[in-house]
Write a structure and sequence with these properties.
Number of domains: 2
Mean pLDDT: 86
Shape: elongated
Radius of gyration: 23 Å
Structural class: alpha+beta
Helix content: 40-55%
Largest sheet: 3 strands, antiparallel
Strand order of the largest sheet: 3-4-5
Length: 159
């Protein structure tokens, strides 16, 4: 257990060392969220003897740089409903995965959020006579904050 507000990237090296001390060196593959390791720690993992293998989410900025190459690659079937693209680059293997179930779930979440946003905006529109301009702006701002990225999917919003 670690104290609250402890940054994952500051604890990873000590955690890896502790596991190695407790259980010895082994052929492990560490699976981490993209926010946990820093590039410096990943470099140390690659340079260790033997190299520490890992699977980590790629930061979105790097995905943008790899996007063109990924688009050129063919999809491969990993199993029904799941397809992958493999991109070996810079002594690493980038694995891009698309799951039909996950896509459906994300679309359903977006659709629910859009419906909630439209409902909220319609309610604000019905109250526009009783709201001042500033109150309308604040209310639309709150709706925008709650909707997150789906706010950009709705056009023609005016306070």
């Amino acid at each position: 257990m670690l104290p609250g507000n402890t940054s994952d990237k500051t604890t990873l090296k000590a955690f890896l060392t502790k596991i190695e001390e407790l259980y010895g060196k082994a052929q492990r593959i560490w699976v981490m969220d993209r926010g946990i390791p820093t590039e410096a720690v990943l470099e140390e993992m690659r340079a260790s003897d033997p190299p520490i293998r890992y699977l980590v989410g790629t930061p979105k900025g790097r995905l943008t740089k790899l996007e063109k190459k990924l688009l050129e690659l063919p999809w491969q079937s990993a199993r029904p409903e799941v397809r992958v693209k493999l991109l070996p680059q810079d002594a690493q293997l980038y694995v891009f995965i698309e799951s039909h179930a996950r896509l459906k779930k994300e679309r359903a979440i977006r659709l629910r959020k859009v419906r909630e946003l439209i409902q909220r905006l319609k309610a604000l529109q019905a109250r526009k006579q009783e709201l001042t301009r500033d109150e309308s702006l604040v209310a639309v701002g709150q709706a925008k904050e709650q909707a997150g990225r789906v706010f950009g999917l709705v056009r023609g919003i005016r306070p």
